[in-house]
Specification:
Blueprint (H helix, E strand, L loop, with lengths): L2 E7 L4 H5 L1 E2 L9 H14 L6 E4 L3 H10 L7 E3 L14 E2 H5 L16 H14 L1 H4 L2 E7 L1 H10 L5 H4 L10 E5 L1
Helix pairs in contact: 2-3, 5-7
GO cellular component, one term: cytosol
GO molecular function, one term: fructose-2,6-bisphosphate 2-phosphatase activity
Protein name: Histidine phosphatase family protein
Length: 178
Amino acid sequence: MSVEIVFETHAWSQDNDHGIATGWLPGRLSERGRRLAVELGDRRQKDGISAVFTSDLARAVETASLAFEGTDMPVLHDWRLRECDYGDGNGMPAAELHRNRAHYLDQPYPGGESWRQAVDRAGRFLADLPSRWSDTRVLVIGHVATRWAFDHVIDGKPLEDLVNADFGWREGWEYRLD
């Protein structure tokens, strides 16, 4: 009894264009992001996906909506798949915010949460997934914290390594949750 998980990040946002760390702010896709969301749908609509789970933040919801528009694919929003809450840093320049990212591995951002708290939150999503979606293939649309949770919980990668590594965007990551 396992779940195959395909992880994709939300498509490119207006804040990505401007180097802004959106965090828990909603964000909107840029024109480029809207094209990438449609491409994601083209890639995944015939990929054996049973359901799509997405962060409830607007940029992730918009990605899922554009990718699966006109299909009967169930799209389920889950707040646990959100990005790390940067608190007072939501909306600040990404380079400035992430300069000391490792400092916030266990210490929450002022007014927000730590990376470990964000990863634990997304880990609770993983713990619930097999109860309904065992023996299926699902797509998850999320953020950096979502991917780190999958790398940490499923693949056993230490958060201390992930927090210092480059995100290395690509078209999807695959996981098997047993």
